[in-house]
Amino acid sequence: MDCWSPSLTADDEFEKLVIRMNPPRVTVDNASSGTATLIQVDSANKRGSLLEVVQVLNDMDLIIRRAYISSDGEWFMDVFHVTDQNGNKLHEDEVAERIQQSLGPRAKSFRSLRRSVGVQAADEHTTIELTGRDRPGLLSEVFAVLADLKCNVVAAEVWTHNSRMASVVYITDDETGLPISDPDRLAKIKQLLLYVLKGDRDKRSANTAVSVGGTNMQRRLHQMMYADRDYDTDYMDSSSTNDRSKPLVTVENLADKGYTVVSLRCPDRPKLLFDTVCTLTDMQYVVFHATVIAEGPEAYQEYYIRHTDGCPISSEAEQQRVILCLEAAIKRRTSEGIRLELCSADRAGLLSDVTRIFRENGLSVTRAEVTTRGSQAVNTFYVIDASGNPVKSETIEAVRNEIGLTILHVKEDTYSKSPSQHSGRFSFGSLFRSRSEKVLYNLGLMRSCS
Q1: Calpha distance 42→100 (Å, rounded)
Q2: Strand ranges across the sheet with 25-29
Q3: Which of 306, 341, 271, 283 is nearest to 60 (CA)?
Q4: CA 275 to each of CA 25, 55, 242, 271, 439: distance values in angstroms, whole numbers, following the listed order
Q5: What is 337-354 written as a DSSP string?
Q6: Highest mean pLDDT out of 108-112, 125-129, 357-361, 385-389
Q7: What's the mean pLDDT in 68-85?
Q8: For 230-247, what is each residue's pLDDT tens digit?
Q9: pLDDT tens, position by position, 134-184
Q10: What is the pLDDT of residues 217-229, one digit of tens each?
């Protein structure tokens, strides 16, 4: 349930006025660094600004190598060192324009982004949101139901973590290509999907319900899994608790400054900064200062935060909850399994057929990204053996032979999960001294541990 009061409408209008008087300034600098493009954002400070900027970089599939964030007071300044997916500098100004649009007075208010799980009609498609207990073959059953109901899947993203599944699916009518808005038909879709989700094993709630509004797909997936309490240790997989690649997250209060310091270290991967900032924001924390370094196999992040009421974290229980939620946010998108890429002409029932073949060959999908580009379906699946054993190469070849050797390929994942050798607590002091990066240290916000 949304916790914002009606009086906040006036606050939104005031924020827009301030932004109109002080429009955001975005500078793209290709000269200062030999390896990355520097993007500096200066803007009037408003709640959610950091997430909006990071979300733009995330949507553009940029790799954030470093980031320095400061937003104490009425103004904030963020500096990001970014490259494209191939490690090259940027050679276009589109990023500056998109960030300015995201922060400008016409941008959608951060407070309007929250919504409940459901099915809703947008301008070009109908959105279906699903959460429930993960199990082998679940995705196959979901797509089979949609195919049987003459629904064409134009895009989808599926995450699994801690035995839970969340998915956002965009559909249109198979015959007309238009959004589905008929209440009776939507009710039938929801009823059948809810039946599939519940199965006979779900001890917790499965969800598919009507809602209004919209938000970023990956942002919504984080919100859905957080609401579904995928971070809950009562339901944690035994394999997860012993995972050597588990992120290292520490939380402690900096009493003299009035901040809570959240530090984390984990194997680096794309969109990691988005995942952590999204989680802190949705947990009602404000990031005042932060430093991020992700130039090697590991990423290091340190945040100085307060709750939205201006207070630091006040209890050990709350500290532990932050640790669990950040660990979950990082692991939701961690690539587990063999990456398969499907590129073929789109057709009705394609996803139903492909996921059925996965199921019949004993494969379970841990994560999926489904897109449609014109008449082409471009889909990525991460699959594991449903019994928990390593996937056999002959199984993959059997699947490829049945689906098509020319359209289904095994792809190397540069950021696949690998064990990380670390233990105990850590601090950024020596790391930044060795790299001559003392931005937060000079502000009196980074402590040396020497």
Answers
A1: 10
A2: 25-29, 37-44, 75-83, 63-70, 285-293, 298-307, 259-267, 248-254
A3: 271
A4: 25, 9, 22, 6, 23
A5: SEEEEEEEE--TTHHHHH
A6: 357-361
A7: 88
A8: 999 766 655 544 455 689
A9: 999 999 999 999 999 999 999 999 999 999 999 999 999 999 989 988 999
A10: 899 999 999 999 9
Tracing tokens 């939380």 back to the chain, one arrives at 251
Between residues 255 and 434, the one the model is more confident about: 255
Residue 32, both tokens = 């200062």
Alpha carbon distances (Å) from 102 to 19, 56, 361: 12, 8, 45
The pair of three-digit structure tokens given for residue 74, joined into one six-digit string: 């009425």
pLDDT at 16 over 70: no
Rounded CA separation 11/4 (Å): 11
Question: Within 13 Å and on the Cβ side, how many CA atoms surround 92?
Answer: 8
Contact, 41 vs 77, CB < 8 A? yes
Which secondary-structure segment (H or E) carries 174?
A: none
Length of the chain: 450
* Residue given tokens 């950021």 in the structure block: 415
Six-digit token string for 91: 């050679």
Closest CA to 377 of 355, 402, 399: 355
Q: At 107, list the tokens.
A: 């941008």
* Sequence letter at residue 357: I
